[in-house]
């Protein structure tokens, strides 16, 4: 068959789930995703001080709290800096494990924002809705923070671990067993929950 070529833009952030596993296995400050949620919701932010700075053009807010950069294997999309390493900074005597967990979730969201910004720039189309899958979707504050940072709607499919489902759907689509609408509209996203940004 003669069909048009379709391109996909993808951003690679390998340390999202790995960062949570490191909090569990490397630092021992969480036991499971439920505890990540519990700790992250105990604090309003990653702890620190807020400064309101007025410049000649406009005022802006500067927040100096715990900063987590989960660059365990370098920074990937959109920076591609393999020699960068992870860091936790901004700790004070008032910092708790809840602040570190919250900073970790925020870091994953910020990496996603940078990747989405690059995709939007390359495609010349803004992202209005982001479909989010994977184990972190079990953490509702992660989904809400992601929607807030991206300033877009987030959809969480009923099937959260959808990599295998996506591979099966693509194979079935190529074999003509079903069409795209059957898979996406009626299947994967039929019972999706949504997070609107605040």
UniProtKB/TrEMBL annotation:
Coiled coil: none annotated. Residues 6-172 form the Carbohydrate kinase FGGY C-terminal domain. Gene3D superfamilies: 3.30.420.40. One of its GO terms (molecular function) is glycerol kinase activity. It holds the Pfam family FGGY_C. One of its GO terms (biological process) is glycerol metabolic process. One of its GO terms (cellular component) is mitochondrion. PANTHER family: GLYCEROL KINASE (PTHR10196:SF69), SUGAR KINASE (PTHR10196). This is Carbohydrate kinase FGGY C-terminal domain-containing protein. It comes from Zophobas morio. The lineage of its organism: Eukaryota, Metazoa, Ecdysozoa, Arthropoda, Hexapoda.
């Amino acid at each position: 068959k003669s069909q048009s070529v379709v391109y996909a833009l993808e951003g690679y952030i390998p340390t999202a789930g790995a960062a949570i596993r490191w909090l569990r296995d490397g630092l021992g400050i969480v036991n499971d995703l439920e505890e990540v949620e519990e700790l992250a919701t105990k604090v309003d932010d990653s702890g620190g001080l807020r400064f309101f700075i007025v410049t000649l053009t406009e005022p802006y807010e500067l927040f100096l709290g715990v900063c987590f950069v989960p660059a365990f294997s370098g920074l990937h999309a959109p920076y591609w800096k393999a020699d960068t390493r992870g860091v936790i900074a901004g700790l004070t005597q008032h910092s708790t494990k809840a602040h570190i967990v919250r900073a970790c979730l925020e870091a994953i969201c910020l990496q996603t924002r940078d990747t989405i910004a690059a995709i939007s720039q390359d495609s010349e189309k803004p992202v209005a809705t982001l479909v989010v899958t994977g184990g972190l979707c079990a953490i509702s504050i992660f989904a809400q923070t992601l929607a807030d940072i991206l300033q877009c709607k987030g959809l969480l499919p009923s099937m959260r671990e959808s990599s295998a489902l996506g591979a099966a759907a693509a194979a079935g689509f190529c074999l003509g067993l079903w069409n795209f609408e059957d898979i996406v509209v009626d299947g994967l996203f039929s019972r999706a929950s949504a997070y609107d940004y605040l």
